[in-house]
Structures are given as structure tokens and as C-alpha cells.
Amino acid sequence: MLLEVTHLTVSYDKAMLLNDISLAVDRGELVSLVGPNGAGKSTTLRAITGLVSWEKRIKRRSAKGDITIKGQVTFEGERIDQIPAHLIVKRGLIHCPERRRPFREMTVIDNLKAGAYLVNDRTRTEDNLKTVYDLFPVLRARSKQISGTLSGGEQQMLAIGRAIMSLPKLLCIDEPSTGLAPKLRSEVFAKIREVNGLGITVLLVEQEVSMVFKMASRNYVLSSGKIIAEGRGEELLQNEVIRKTYLGL
User: Fold this and answer.
1) Which among 55, 128, 123, 117 has a CA at the least distance from the CA of 89?
2) CA 157, CA 139: separation in Å to the nearest integer?
């Protein structure tokens, strides 16, 4: 497996956010982590990519109270749960955050180049930029435009393009459909399928299960901080309890 998460538990003070999460992603897969708001999906991604601090691994203080983190994250056969986020990025595990978060005052091209800051091969960076432009032609057309003036869908494409510039081995995409109209959601999901078709492994966190189940190799259903089901989309949709209780279908 490319990524293995084992017995991941995260709590803030007395609130249990993740309770004994285990999941895996193999090379080339598009795997989804779905569930309702507040289920712990984004916290899972943040813990995997080092954005929830693993310092001291037992407890530390924050403005929110005690943070307790337990478990193990392995990437390409090596543990990464005890190293900082910037070193995780160097290994090729890239986090594309919720709500896009472009550098709003910078142009599209400068945002994309910022994504390649760890890539020292100029030729490879130029080739990768061409790949991003071929994938998202609108970014080529708007390369000199200030990123904060793009539409929500264009900003999401920019966020994914910027992540691709980092040469990801595993691309973790958090809630790409947030704030988008249905037509734009469909377009963004189609682009994510194309990204996976380029050979980039994808871990997709999403609430829009009807689209995700059609495109993902496998799915994990998260509810109240626990994985309550795993399987292919068609299998999960046949389970009436999961359909009604956890997926709202």
C-alpha cells in the first residue's frame, strides 16, 4: 500500500474527533472518505498530512485545550506521523485544502509556480505546467489574472493545479465541491477523474456521495469519528441503513 493509516485517534480536550480510524490507499487508486458534516473527514486528512501536530504524540496544550493524538501513518512503507508537514510534502504527499485557499493577491501563474517550490528541475516544472494547462485550459487563459478574482470553480481548479505542480505521489483533496453550483461540481469531479487518469493516486474527502461513488475505486464512510463501512459505491448504496442513516439518500 502507498498509504496506511492505523488506529488513528484524535481528541481535543474531552471531545473525541477521530476514534480508531484505519484506512489504506494503494498506488493508482482513487479512494474516497465520505460522511456528513462534523464526521471528522478534514481532521483525518490534516492528521495524515501533518497539519494536526503530532508533537510528543501523547498530549500538548493549544488554545483549544489538550490535543491527544494516537496511531500510526505509513507512506511508502515508512512512518510519517512523527515528522513535520513540510517534510511530508517533500515525500510527495500533498494536501489540497478545503475552500481552495489560493494566494489571492498573486496571479494564477505565480500561484502555480509556488506549488513547484520544492521541484529543483526547471524542465520538469515547465513540463508539469504544460500538464496543468492541458488539464485546466481556463488557467492558461487566465494565467495573468489575480487569483482572488477567479470564480469558485476556477479557484478550485487552481488549487488542484497548484497541488499537481508539487509532483504528488498521493494527492489528498478536501471537499472540492464546497460552495460550487451543481454544474461546476460535475466539472470539478470530472477533472479529478482526469488527474487520477494521469497516474496520480487520489484520496478524496467529500460529502457529495452520489458523484463520488461513481468515480472512486473504494470508499470509506465516516460517521461521528468512526469508519462505519468500506466498499465499492454500488455495494454501499445497497445497504439501506447506510443509505438512510449516514448518507441521507
Assistant:
1) 117
2) 8
Q: Which of 11, 1, 95 is nearest to 48 (CA)?
A: 95
Q: What is the DSSP letter of 89?
A: H
Residues in CB range of 77: below 8 A, 6 or more apart: none
For 27-52+84-246, the fitting CATH number among 2.60.40.10, 3.30.70.120, 3.30.450.20, 3.40.50.300 is: 3.40.50.300
Of 169, 11, 164, give the one whose Cα is nearest residue 78. Answer: 169
Q: What pLDDT, in 10s, does the model give residues 4-42?
A: 999 999 988 778 899 999 999 999 999 999 988 888 999
Looking at per-residue pLDDT, the higher value among 193 and 53 belongs to: 193
**Which pLDDT band, with edges at 50, 70 and 90, does 218 fall under?**
very high
Q: Look at residues 172, 162, 98 and name the one whose alpha carbon lies nearest to residue 132.
A: 162
3-state secondary structure of 228: strand
Query: Phi/psi at 56 (nearest 5 deg)?
Result: 65, -10
